[in-house]
Amino acid sequence: SNRGSITTLLPPFLLRLITLCLAIASSAGTVDESFTTLKKHQHFHHRRARMSDPASFANLDNVKITSFHLDLSVNFKEKTLKGHIDVKAKALKESTSLVLDTRDLTISKVEDLKGNKIEHSMDKPHPVFGSKLEVKFGEAVKEGETKDIRIYYSTSPQSSAIQWLPPANTAGKKHPYLFTQCQAIHARSMFPCQDSPGVKSTYTATIAVPSPLVALMSAVAAKGTGEKKEDSVVYRFSQPVPTPSYLVALVVGCLEERKIGPRSSVWSEPEMVDAGVAEFEDTEKYLATAESIAGPYVWGRYDILLLPPSFPYGGMENPCLTFVTPTLLAGDKSLATVVIHEISHSWMGNLVTCKSWVDFWMNEGFCRILELKIIKALFGDKYFDLYANIGLKALRGSISLFGEDHNYTKMRPELKDVDPDDAFSSVPYEKGLNFLIYLENLIGGEKVMNPLLKEYCSTFKNDVVTAEKFRDFFLSYLKGKVDDKVLGGIEWEKWWYTTGMPYKANKFDTSLMDECVEAASKCKEGVIVEGSVVKGWSTAQTVIFLDKLEDIQMEDFKAAEKGGEQKEKAKFQELLIGLDKKCGFSKSRNSEILFRWYKLGIRSGLESVFPDAIKFVLSQGRMKFVRPLYRLLFASPEGKEKALETFKANKDIYHSIAAKMIAKDLKLSS
Asked: Which residues, in sequence order, are CB contacts of 570 under 8 Å at separation 6+?
């Protein structure tokens, strides 16, 4: 059997693979999110019209913003963006006003482009969805006609979209830094907008920043960018591809550029940028492979911004400028292919976008299947199945957290009165992926599915989609290519609305997993895997080993008779001490491995792990890592007080989205 010599199956560049769990966390974030349901606020309900997006106040069915221009100055002292936005609004039906989403914005005046005052009103704020801004047209605007509006405003220091970092929180320690994170509904705290994925607009921007700082956006540099004016620099940008509000992004800091390909550069602080070059040098290979499957890359540039540690996600697919966490800097490229996930979003999510967050699975599930197809093309068939299997482990974790019957475990959850951040988990990623794999197997494999996906991207380019729209496209495209009985047997609604694990289970090749799973099982029997064996594994295989060990640990602790829990913990502590002596997991530079090691140690009550786990949650703010570790610390007798004390003393180092969610995990907010 080749199973005992699995490394002979591996291509020499396997270390460039990342664990699937990393990719899951990228686009939007973390694979492991908790939830709360909002209290109902009467003023919110009775002022809302019937809308196609439950998370937006905007009159999306009446008026659409087709383009906008941002003209803003960055003030680090006041922690504000100040200036104006020009919007071009097109009436989809005869309309008398434009309704926009805002949160924590101060609106100073609204005018037309000739300086004439326009009447406007702002509702009382809802704690999550912000305030409805209604701009009156005066005379009704007929269907198909446009109206130009200029809104003067400033953001608040509390803007949930913007993180302001003092020099001490940067690598260089000399200059301040800001970055934005607008997904899911945080763009409204950066600029007045129709804050729904269902509205896509082209945009331009002029951003004035203090010299010598650099500004970048999810757009390409425009003519005249970098113009110096006294003690500031003015940067100009253009995004000619229609983009939803959640993909508008801004970063300002002491940034340097390093070219890594014909259409790609890495940007970061001078102290970190060279490490990024080494880690992400295969980006062009990933882009070219994606194009061969999904069609032309339409965004021009594909640059990568390596952010400070407080960035709350693995990556964020901002067009032209993917944001990534420094937790990917393992030093051996083993985590660099998180970029494959973000590249896949250039088609799935960015080019073709879900109409509302109810169909978030259409961004993430389609992104996941393209990501795995790129991995398959680069590294071989078995790696598709390897990463799909790891994704199922993440999915089981999310379902366990929510509960098997919870609304948030549906592919298409009910999101009325729900903060989309609360419903966020691996569910849309992995249930979406598994549904698409099921469809691919059903219709004849990738020889049928790959051309279908390319046609899907071409058909819905620059558009928004719903599950129903995809179903109609799928059936129409395959008419005459696949037996009608096969197509008629697809139980679409059961896939969409069944809670828990996917409606039907797919079968995957497990040959690259088997040795790792077996090694974990033997550890329980006292036969500790040799360090030399682990060194021959890829990061993905090591993750599988540690994940299996966690499964065994949780099963043993659950099965322990009452009063016998401590005995089981002591046995596992002994196992972990022996394992670390041979394999040195506690000294790893790989964040995915450290994260899993700390989970095993905290659950076992292994004293030596607690100080290291605390250092880890303070060294970075990636929600995929910090939230589960805070939860485990909080649930353990040894760590509860330390978790509370650590978070309370250091909550300002985290991004506001992460701080909000950790506070809920620690029962510090409802």
From this structure: none
